[in-house]
Amino acid sequence: METLSEILDALRRPLDMAARDGHARIGRIRGLERTIPALAEQGAARARSAQARAALGELASTFAGYAVLDPDARRAAVDQGLVLLERARQAGESAPAAAPDALRVPITRFRGVGEEIAGKLARLGIRTAWDALWTLPRTYEERLPPRPVRAIRQNTIATLDARVLSLTPPRRARSGLRIFEAIFEDETGTIPAVWYNFVPRLSPGQRVRVVGPVEAVRGRRRFRVPEIIYLRAGEQAPDDPDLGRIVPVYPLTEGLGERRLRSLLRQVVDEVAPRAPELIPGAIIRELGLPPLAEALRTVHFPPPGADLHALEKGATPAHRRLAFEELFFLELHLALVRRDIARAPASACPGGGRLERRLFDRLPFALTGAQRRALREIGTDLARPHPMNRLLQGDVGSGKTVVALLAAARAIDAGAQAAIMAPTEILAEQHFRTIEPLLSAAGARAALLTAGVSKAERARTLRGVAEGAIGLLVGTHAVIVDAVRFARLAFAVVDEQHRFGVAQRMALREKGTRPDSAEEPHLLVMTATPIPRSLALTVFGDLDLSVIDEMPPGREPVETRHFTEKDRRKVYAQIRETAGAGRQVFVVYPLVSESEKVDLRDATRMAEALRMEFSDLEVGLVHGQMKPAEKNAVMARFKRGAIHVLVATTVVEVGIDVPNATLMVVEHAERFGLSQLHQLRGRVGRGGGRSRCHLLTPPLAPGSEAARRMRVMEATQDGFRIAEEDLAIRGPGDFLGTRQHGLPNLRVASLLGQAPLISRAREAAQALVASEPSLSKPEHVPLWAGLDLHREALGLLRAG
Ligand code: ADP
Ligand code: MG
To answer: What pairs with residue 473 in β-bridges?
Structure first.
């Protein structure tokens, strides 16, 4: 037996027979305990869908003990077997036409795709028919009837029937591009065309059709990378199926022309799209008034006559919306399942109200703000449950997240377990430790610090204390704790300033935090000072519950923010002097450590020297990322003590350093920083009461430039949320989150900008489904698993760590 469907048929025959006429002949059918498991295992080995494999596995085990069952149980086994078989059929490739696996046919099965082309397609991420269907046109062109050279206008897509007049040999541009030119003529004139890294097959005198965009270079028209359509012998005009239509324009990769891609997509759309099964329950799609998947795929690739070109170009057709919804829905379904799994996993319940918590509370030097109390209540409710918390605590810089985390950690310790607070940098970890340790030890619990900078002996002691459970709270850098530590009983993990983590990273962290001898997972609290725009909260952070601290501790004044250009440097220096004279301290922040990048930036090292000359009576310190941890710490400690008046720093101060006496923040080359970064930097001052300032220094900026816009936003508002939304709009989600490992889903159609309403709909639909049937095992839900299989990989949801 070759295929899964043959195996399923072979399984079905005896079961059908056994079930017929109210199981009348069941006694005559023998050997089911051998044949069914054997066949089911063969089938499972062949099935590509996880659902089908699971169903066949269950089938095998159902029949393994068939021989010893009593008659009633045998009948039940046969019925159950048929149900499982049907489930396997629906999920597996044996399903007629609508088999999701048919979508995975390798692209090499299509006409004209040999090894070489396949390699090029792979560079576009196309390996299967499904990949190709989701490679959407980057734009569209309307193919108008041919016009004579004289009538061709610049900035249009033109069609021309002409002769090749001359060809120039390829030449190399300074950029390394190979440039190739040809000139075409007809009765009314001549027009050149240009290609890059591509030489079309042309010979002088040949008659061809030229189709493509016409640009003007120094007032002269030319075709830019047009397509060439060749005439067959004796033809006056080519047989051109695209003429008069709106045609798709695909993303290009070197050596793969538009025409070739288009003809491949035509094959794939004709052969595969009509059979594309609905993966999402029909009711959801109908309620949104969206077209079926097959139709949407066809329309997006090959719009019908009369389609709205403008809407197509903007990706704003119902077909585009349908596809955007499809990927958002599967993203949200994935998140809903992550949440479901977390909600089912066991965790230590930490009820609160214990002794350590009460003592800490009594020792706090201030009263909690209302927002802090609310956040603590929300966290406390989660901690009290025997399932893991998975929560994001968002609060502007200085809003007091640390103390909330500490009080929550006390609950874990009161419950006889342990807590960990992880920071992205050593300096931050140490700062947390210095605030937390005295409070905790006065209240009668032990805390320890673990960073790369800790001595060997100390480290060994700490690791032992943590493994034995003697240390209740461990503070350290994220990397060190995750890599090196085994806890006796970790119940609560806090990750500070890690808004850069995505869903997959959080999953990995939770797994690492799980003890090998128990299935219990730690409660997880992620803290961030970056307000998370709604679209990201629904996607990148969509597995998390959200608590917000939206109120500052009393006495915080807004930070007066001003933009200065180079010519006002003296004024800024005068402010530095005045601030230091009043007994306050100053941060001066630089975007780079050295001039290694040959960018004309004043680097922090040289600038510190210059400032030392300028302010010979003041103590100027320097801290940057290339320094050894011990050196860094020494400088930071002196700044905190007030022994340094002006601290020149690279962006290490960005994330959370607390020096209440610092009231002036000068940002050099402020144009190099994103809005959220600037806002974070500004949050370093204004913590000690009294008036604080932030001066943004830049070279002269073009009015209306994006950098100028950022400076204006900073001057105009202190509202972190508004700033984050602006930042997201300016930079896009990837740069907004700031690193490669941000865990952004790789959306091909939908965008995280401006689609929050559609994301919400997708989320509601996915959550309702999982709420109604958490295992998603009803027959009508089987295609969902295929959809998850098909989309997860492309969305990058499986990437971890
Ligand atoms: P962030 O939210 O940026 O991490 P921190 O937790 O570092 O803020 O708190 C900033 C400062 O505010 C710390 O010095 C902290 O002791 C202080 N603080 C926190 N909560 C309060 C409060 N309710 N009243 C007064 N000061 C507070
Ligand atoms: Mg903090």
So the answer is: 419, 447
Q: Tell me: the pLDDT tens digits for 649-674? A: 876 554 456 788 999 999 999 998 88
Sequence-ordered list of residues with C-beta below 8 angstroms from that of 644, at least 6 positions apart, any chain: 585, 619, 620, 621, 635, 638
Q: Which residue's CA is the closest to the ligand 1 atom numbered 14?
A: 658
Paired tokens of 552 = 């500052």
Closest protein CA for atom 25 of ligand 1: 553
Tens-place pLDDT, residues 778-795 = 888 888 988 888 888 777
The three-class DSSP label of residue 691 is: coil
What angle (nearest 5°) sits at the alpha carbon of residue 550, between those of residues 544 and 554?
Answer: 145
**For 6-28, how does the pLDDT look when each residue is reduced to its tens digit (9 = 90+)?**
788 888 888 888 877 778 878 77
Nearest to 358 by CA among 414, 302, 301, 313: 414
Ligand nearest to the CA of 680: 1
Q: Are strands 207-217 and 227-230 parallel, antiparallel or unpaired?
A: antiparallel
Amino acid at 222: R
Identify the sign of the CA torsion 439, 445, 449, 455. Answer: positive
- Helix (H) / strand (E) element for 714: namely helix 706-716
Angle at 539 between CA 535 and CA 540, to 5 degrees: 110
Atom of ligand 1 nearest to the CA of 660: 14
403 close to ligand 1 (CB < 6 Angstrom): yes
**CA end-to-end span of the chain:** 42
Q: Which two tokens stand for residue 79?
A: 């019925």
- Looking at residue 19, its amino acid is A
Question: In terms of DSSP bridges, do strands 523-528 and 390-395 run parallel, antiparallel, or are they unpaired?
Answer: parallel
More confident of the two residues 3 and 488: 488
The amino acid that residue 72 corresponds to is D
Model pTM score: 0.71
In angstroms, the CA 681 to CA 687 distance is: 12
At 32, the pLDDT band (50, 70, 90 cuts) reads: confident
pLDDT band at 338 (very low <50, low <70, confident <90, very high): confident
Write phi, then psi, for 281 (nearest 5 degrees): -50, 135
The pLDDT score that the predictor gives to residue 666 is 95
Coil vs helix vs strand at 487: coil
627: Cβ contacts below 8 Å, ≥ 6 apart: 635
For residue 397 and ligand 1, the question of a CB distance below 6 A is answered with yes
Q: What whole-number percentage of the chain has pLDDT above 90?
A: 44
Top mutation candidate among 403, 430, 437, 552 for ligand 1, by most atoms within 8 Å of CB: 403
